[in-house]
Amino acid sequence: MTQETLVLDGRLKGYPLAAAPCDPEQIATLGWNLYQDDLPYPIAVLDEQALSHNLQWMQAFAQARDIVIAPHGKTTLSPQIFRRQLDAGAWGLTFATVWQAGVGVRAGAQRVMIANQVVADADLDGVVALLNTNPGLRLWFLVDSAEQVARIEDWARRRQHRTPLDCLLEIGIAGQRTGCRTAEQAMTLARRIHASLALRLGGIECYEGGLAHGDAQADQKAVTAFLDGVREITQDCDRVGLFQDETIILTAGGSAVFDVVAPALRASVSRPLLGVLRSGCYIAHDHDFYAGFMRNIQSRSGLDDGLRPALTVWALVQSVPEPGLALLSVGKRDVSFDLSLPQPVGLAPHGALANQPVPTGWSITGLNDHHAYLRFDPSGAVIPAVGDRVILGISHPCTTFDKWAWMPLADARGHVVGAITTAF
User: Fold this and answer.
1) Shared domain check, 235 and 184
2) Is 56 within the bounds of a domain?
3) Which of 386, 337, 344 is nearest to 361 (CA)?
4) Helix 216-239 with 183-195: angle, nearest 10 deg
5) Residues 6 or more apart from 401 whose CB is under 8 A from it?
6) One-character DSSP codes across 235-302
7) pTM recorded for the entire structure
8) Same-domain pairing of 217 and 110
9) Could you read off the pLDDT of 23-39 as tens digits, one per residue?
10) How many independent structural domains does the chain possess?
11) By three-state DSSP, how is residue 223 classified?
12) Cα separation of 253 and 279, whole Å?
């Protein structure tokens, strides 16, 4: 049994230990409801309505700007979500590793970008294995140095591999992640790739997210300036005939400032150009980090609607040991904390069949492995009690998804209407 066809059972965190095993596609028939405590705590939950909204919203955003999306699969690494993204119109999928790409291909992706350098023999062998076993698959990975080209050529000689592999030239930012640092370096490397029998240059890639810090105008200025340089490199490579495919790919990340990225994925070139947005976090969004960027996007673009947070983690109040402090049954093993701590966004008192907003001032001030410290005003009108359910919003969905092998999909009334699995 592969993880893509994982059967849900009590071995998985968040699945009732006393329940019989269940296929993810059949879980709605069990009649479970979050408010009836049918699932153990903590439990990571996807809001079906918000998830569906985000799928359609981002697809419409890209289509209106004449670009395509290849969502970054590392966010969820969920075959069910991949299929929904592809069914909604995604051009392809993006991944960080060759192994992750295999998950996407098995979920049905026919166009895959590995937004990372591929160097090791085993990974290059893996790329070839995916191509050989999936007719029609197109797969591109990133190149940013002559040393990488040389290693790939050495691998091709030793493996007697004579078909060039598709790649994208990566443009980077000084002091940040991978990628060529200057236009001169990029052009030199593009010529080196063009001359190689082991590689075929299909376009230009960049990641601009490191320039976005939450200041709407400053982010726009910095990202636009960087992408202007990327576009010039694209046009220079085209001018001297270095691209080796019928269509030139120009692609950027775009999770934080995709409104700035989208218009920059165009260039005056001699052949068709495909702008590819690789946003990944849009699918679940969040309550903090990306929510702030979304407000900036709406302000800059005049959009009335935007992405909605679809991922929460539900926890139980298990102890109120002193005034102003409650301990929740959730911790670092269950919820992201790399960018900011989770925040209480809803309260469902014990026995309630709906949730309500939490009082102003409630906050999570710390996490242990399996405990969260909820601070509150002990003189307030609402005091958490043992058995209450606290719904936590998260920041950065990537590092919550990787803590769960499965998640239920729930409707507005708490009914479990579906499930997704992950392959971390």
Assistant:
1) yes
2) no
3) 344
4) 40
5) 44, 75, 76, 77, 78, 284, 311, 407, 422, 424
6) HHHHHTT---SSSEEEEE--SS-HHHHHHHS----SS-EEEEE---GGGT--SSHHHHHHHHHHHHHT
7) 0.96
8) yes
9) 999 999 999 999 999 99
10) 2
11) helix
12) 6
At position 201, the amino acid (one-letter code) is L
Contact in structure between 313 and 328 (CB atoms under 8 Å): no
Residue 302, domain member (yes or no): no
Q: Are residues 216 and 260 in the same domain?
A: yes
Report the alpha-carbon distance of residue 150 to residue 289 in Å, rounded.
40
CB 335 within 8 A of CB 370: no
**Low-confidence residues in the chain, pLDDT < 70:** 1-5
Q: For residue 180, what are the contacts with CB-CB under 8 A and spacing of at least 6?
A: 144, 169, 170, 171, 172, 186, 189
330 occurs within a structural domain? yes
Whether the Cβ atoms of residue 258 and residue 61 lie closer than 8 Å to each other: yes
* DSSP state for residue 133 in the 8-state scheme: H
CA distance 178 to 405: 30
**DSSP label at residue 176:** S
Over residues 303-342, the pLDDT tens digits come to 999 999 999 999 999 999 999 999 999 999 999 999 999 9
Would residue 289 count as lying in a domain?
no
| Residue partners of 379: CB distance under 8 A and separation at least 6 | none
Q: What is the largest CA-CA distance in the chain?
A: 75
Instruction: Give the CATH number of the domain where residue 413 resides.
Output: 2.40.37.20
For residues 91 and 69, the answer to whether their CB atoms sit within 8 Å is yes
Mark 339-371 as b/e (b = at least 16 C-beta within 10 Å): eebbbbbbbbeeeeeebeebeeebebeebeeeb
User: Rounded distance, CA 127 to CA 146, Å?
Assistant: 20
